[in-house]
Design goal:
Elements lengths: L2 E4 L5 H8 L3 E4 L5 H7 L5 E4 L7 H6 L5 E4 L9 H6 L3 E4 L5 H16 L2 H9 L17 E5 L3 H10 L5 E5 L6 H6 L3 E2 L3 H7 L2 E4 L13 H6 L4 E5 L8 H9 L3 E6 L27 E3 L8 H19 L10 E3 L5
The chain binds 3-phosphoglyceric acid (3PG).
């Protein structure tokens, strides 16, 4: 029986489905040494965004045929080396997109209405509502950076709020789609940055997008802008964001993704994590949980397992592609 090692938490129905076909080891929150040990006999591994599937790990996993990525982002995987080794990488791009879009809209509204600050103040018996006057989303111009699958779902969900939507994407083929979504096409990122009251980022992490919003770009934004990042840590340069919030140029930021993320499995007393962003009251940090819903995790896990079973079936070796994106069936 082939061995599959699950290195990050996926929906339990996915684990059960895997167990019907394979000898499954679930290895959550393990040390790097334990992970490297666990993968040596694995035909397949299952990861999310945390596990570094780098050359070191791939060299230890001599029998590896498939990397199942229960989600969309592959920046934690050495895709080039996996391809060189003939290891197929399976992703499920659509599976968690709705959850990420919903979470994004929630954070946009939370920033516009100071929701987290109000909740904290009230818990401390402070009911001075005049301190927390917000702004109407209907009066805002929302800039969507990256109008792919998730950016489009965000646009659809924002439309009924009546806000003005503008977008920027490097893919010119999306221009017609922008029109369908009533998102105004911006010819360059700078235009979007200068016109938006709220900016939400939905781009993959690549050499081009890393640091794409730094000191210069933050300075171009309107004073009082609100920023949301549910894509990847490092797209917005963290140190520059902190400075911009400290000087009041950025009114608030909701950041679900960090360059260095804390361990997600550890208990609070075991976590010795520091990040200067955590200290600022106008920066809302969440633990990369935009995709963490029952529905998304179940769809992602079941679609991933279905694709893994097909690819790992006897006789499919030699017909492999480097990476496969599975259309999520809900
Ligand atoms: C993704 O890339 O699919 C999302 O960022 C979610 O990542 P996660 O699977 O680690 O929650």
């Amino acid at each position: 029986m082939k061995r599959v090692v699950v290195l990050e938490s996926i929906h339990p129905d996915g684990v059960t489905a895997l167990q019907r076909h394979y000898d499954v080891t679930v290895c959550l929150g393990a040390s790097r040494a334990r992970i490297l040990d666990a993968v040596t006999a694995a035909s397949a591994i299952v990861v999310r965004s945390v596990t570094r599937v780098d050359r070191e790990l791939l060299d230890r996993a001599r029998r590896l045929q498939v990397i199942g990525r229960a989600g969309i982002g592959t920046d934690n995987i050495d895709m080039a080396y996996a391809a060189e080794r003939g290891i197929e990488v399976i992703t499920v791009p659509g599976g968690n997109a709705v959850s990420v879009a919903e979470f994004t809209v929630m954070q946009i509204l939370a920033l516009c209405r100071n929701a987290y600050a109000i909740a904290e103040a009230v818990k401390a018996n402070d009911f001075r509502r005049e301190l927390y006057q917000g702004v109407e989303l209907s009066a805002q111009t929302v800039g969507i950076v990256g109008v792919g699958q998730i950016g489009q779902l965000v646009a659809q969900r924002l439309r009924p709020f009546g806000c003005r939507l503008i977008g920027f994407d490097i893919n010119p083929a999306l221009r017609d789609r922008f029109a369908e979504l009533s998102v105004q096409w911006m010819d360059c990122l700078d235009d979007l940055l200068q016109r938006s009251d709220v900016i939400t980022v939905h781009v993959p992490k690549t050499a081009q997008t890393t640091g794409m919003i730094g000191a210069r770009e933050l300075a171009l934004m309107k004073r009082g802008v609100r920023l949301i990042n549910t894509s990847r840590g490092g797209i917005i340069v963290e140190a520059e964001l902190l400075k911009a919030v400290q000087r009041g140029h950025v009114a608030g930021a909701a950041i679900d993704v960090l360059v260095d993320e804390p361990p997600f499995h550890a208990l609070s007393e075991q976590v010795n994590y520091t990040n200067p962003l955590l200290g600022h009251p106008n920066i809302l940090i969440t633990p990369h949980c935009a995709a963490s819903t029952e529905e998304a995790q179940r769809v992602v896990a079941l679609n991933l397992v279905e694709a893994m079973v097909k690819i790992l079936a006897p006789g499919t070796r030699g017909r492999r592609r480097a990476s496969v994106a599975v259309g999520a069936k809900r």
